[in-house]
Amino acid sequence: MNPDPGATADPLAESPHPARRARRGSGAVTLHAIAKLAGVAPITASRALNTPDQVSAKVLQKVTEAVASTGYVRNHIAGGLASTRSRLVAAVVPTVAGPVFLQTVQALTAALAEHGYQLMLGQSGYVDSREDALLDAIIGRRPDGIVLTGILHSPEGRKRLLASGIPVVETWDFTPTPLDMLVGFSHEDVGCAVANYLIAKGHRRLALVAGDDERSTRRLHAFQAAAHAAHAPPVQVVRVPAPTTLKSGRSALVALLAAAPDAPPGAVFCSSDLLALGVMTEAQARGLSIPTQLAVVGFGDIEFAADLHPALTTVRIDGNAIGRQAAQFIVDRAEGRGVALRAVDVGFSIVERDSA
Amino acid sequence: MNPDPGATADPLAESPHPARRARRGSGAVTLHAIAKLAGVAPITASRALNTPDQVSAKVLQKVTEAVASTGYVRNHIAGGLASTRSRLVAAVVPTVAGPVFLQTVQALTAALAEHGYQLMLGQSGYVDSREDALLDAIIGRRPDGIVLTGILHSPEGRKRLLASGIPVVETWDFTPTPLDMLVGFSHEDVGCAVANYLIAKGHRRLALVAGDDERSTRRLHAFQAAAHAAHAPPVQVVRVPAPTTLKSGRSALVALLAAAPDAPPGAVFCSSDLLALGVMTEAQARGLSIPTQLAVVGFGDIEFAADLHPALTTVRIDGNAIGRQAAQFIVDRAEGRGVALRAVDVGFSIVERDSA
DNA sequence: GTGAAAGCGCTAACAC
DNA sequence: GTGTTAGCGCTTTCAC
């Protein structure tokens, strides 16, 4: 495999021990070999790679050459053990398949990579049982930080996380009692803002289609409260199982129409853009005109929301900003920088397009 | 932080060295502490955790109790260094934001977790420059395997991967010259099959909207060849930049219609479902009826393809199977099991719905 | 600016 | 079935 022998093999041959045990090792080039090639101590080679300005130019050059000639790639596993800094960060999502957290994961991965950190991905699923095993698997890798997106169900799990001493960033929410650090926004404010937006547009008969997860529920309650405060009639509600799909959006509109044939809603707020697309699809299939007969507002500002027909009015969350800020929090903490700020509210905005 | 002192602190106090250096360690409970608590040697505690049937029931119980009482979580970093098996697997995708590889990543993550492996995620982006740095970051973590989805641009990178000796699985393709292991399907066969399908449906004027990536190009060529073989008129082609979007699908249909106002295509094959949704959206906006005036075929069978209106006819790839098989390959290799098979063709199927 | 020694926490190899 | 020993490959501490 290695077309360049000689250079890498010899330095190890003159080991002082007269062959006691045969321990295999990985066979890869080690920092020791680099040091020998460069004629310096291992620690000096280490410094040349990690903190180049702590060594002389001559040493730096020799080490660099040795690295280039051998194709050495440093072993972060060993480094992590010695320094108790793995430069690994874990992200936990319910599932990667959903479109919601993708942008966050993408931004997180990219931002971490810039600082030399690597992302580990864990899926908590929608079942509690897996969560504990996942947490053990993660903590066992001693990441320098854990980013939580979506909820962590078990209180047991929260305890374990806390006990591990690993920095934690919770995202996509803005709870009053964070585990550690927090990057998110208020779901209550979203529900309230959308209700007021629709009411300001002249709508009275409001409806809401929402997943049965906790965050959607919070938006729902705030939405209802705002409608009530504006003296609008009671909000017509349909809950669908999470994760939300286009299909459940279609069914939800059917249910909505069937429930009140005489007084159909004039506007509906969906707890995801996919749900909204489902509502729009069903409306179109039934010849219901949007936004004239039914106004639709989504949530998430999915990539293609602007290009739908009609273009979807929705709530935009800056998933990118969340990912970047989460990365920043963890890197700062790992680097030992004292962070004054522990919670960031990235807010949201209602993107007004054609569907409402 | 830890509300349960006493149990964990004492065993370490009687260290034989009269305090020479102060090395801090992580402060977490170690296997040594567990062993002391259970009254056995560290290696025995290790065996109790890793290979429980190699120890007596009594020892197993004592160790289990010690683990429970201290909340011990084993350090995989240290274990990985000692055993040269990190139980980490890297997956490289162009970007997590695209819907294409999500199912694969999800299945991969889940399947690996079942075997005690954890996924590291790397984004190669659409720029070559990042690739080398990413590869170094990955190899430096000494994963037990690397799963490649989407193309690896640089031949330099391929060389590095090979030299690292890490098992590699390439996915979503079936090339004749794999780096190592392979799970995918033939893009040529897809292009050919779709062309024949449309022709069998009586279509003659075929069009194709495709991303400018390599795989789409291969489908494109096969599609053209099959159309030509069936004596159909030349295929009308529009290329769009990768990653494909709903928006570019809309523009593509505009371009298609503008290019041949007198002889519009009767059927169009899109290189992604998102593109197909864009074409359908634009068609609907223009009052063009699908499938009567224009038949549309997508690629990928995105989650909501069946629920669109009209339901989208598309090419289904079993991303789940790809992810699971890739995990199997890597676990088998890591476990030292000789694998006879090194390449699996998962095939594809045309899912006939209403749009074509 | 450079180095020697020790050891991070675990497991492979060899005993018994 | 269990223990002893050495050491994975790196970085920390302390010393020059």
List the topology elements.
Two copies of one chain form a homodimer.
Chain A: H1 31-38, H2 42-50, H3 57-70, H4 76-83, E1 88-93, H5 102-114, E2 118-123, H6 128-140, E3 145-149, H7 155-164, E4 168-171, E5 181-184, H8 187-200, E6 206-211, H9 214-229, E7 236-240, H10 246-259, E8 267-270, H11 273-285, E9 295-299, E10 313-316, H12 319-334, E11 343-345, E12 349-351
Parallel strand pairs in A: 1-2, 1-3, 3-4, 4-5, 5-11, 6-7, 6-8, 8-9, 9-10
Antiparallel strand pairs in A: 10-12
Helix pairs in contact in A: 1-2, 1-3, 2-3, 5-12, 6-7, 8-9, 10-11
Chain A binds a DNA duplex (16 and 16 nucleotides) through helix 2 and helix 4.
Could you characterize what this model shows?
In chain A, strand 6 (206-211), helix 9 (214-229) and strand 7 (236-240) form a beta-alpha-beta unit. Helices cover 42% and strands 15% of the residues of chain A. Chain A has helices at 31-38, 42-50, 57-70, 76-83, 102-114, 128-140, 155-164, 187-200, 214-229, 246-259, 273-285, 319-334, and strands at 88-93, 118-123, 145-149, 168-171, 181-184, 206-211, 236-240, 267-270, 295-299, 313-316, 343-345, 349-351. Chain A has 3 domains: 11-74, Orthogonal Bundle (434 Repressor (Amino-terminal Domain)); 86-185 and 319-346, Response regulator (Rossmann fold, 3-Layer(aba) Sandwich), CATH 3.40.50.2300; 187-316, 3-Layer(aba) Sandwich (Rossmann fold). With 356 residues, chain A is an alpha/beta fold. Chain A contains 12 helices and 12 strands. Mean pLDDT of chain A is 91; it is low at 1-20. At the A-B interface, helix 4, helix 5, strand 2, helix 6 and helix 7 of A face helix 5, helix 6, strand 2, helix 7 and helix 8 of B. Strand 2 (118-123) of chain A pairs antiparallel with strand 2 (118-123) of chain B. Chain A binds a DNA duplex (16 and 16 nucleotides) through helix 2 and helix 4.
